[in-house]
Amino acid sequence: MNVRIGRWTVDFVWPAERLVVETDSWATHGANVAFEDDRARDLDLRRRGFTICRYTERQIREEPRLVAAELRERLSRGGGPAPECPGLDVRPIGADV
Fold this sequence. Notes:
Layout: E1 3-5, E2 8-10, E3 12-14, E4 19-24, H1 26-29, H2 32-47, E5 51-56, H3 57-62, H4 64-76, E6 90-92
Parallel strand pairs: 4-5
Antiparallel strand pairs: 1-2, 1-6, 3-4
């Protein structure tokens, strides 16, 4: 489920826990421009107080238990809005503006 956070589109987000999950395949993220864009997005989202977890298509397909275990651990930590971004704009793609 793609979701917008500011100017970025992310694959999955848990706003209350400040967790973003990106799922990457070599076909869509293997080029130089995509690689640089991913790093710029990660940096901006970390500055907004998010933790970013990236998983490859292979990891999701071949190691789903490891991916799920890490996400469970991160989600159990909780979170909450970072003090520097109280007015966070998180909305599903296609939502009315």
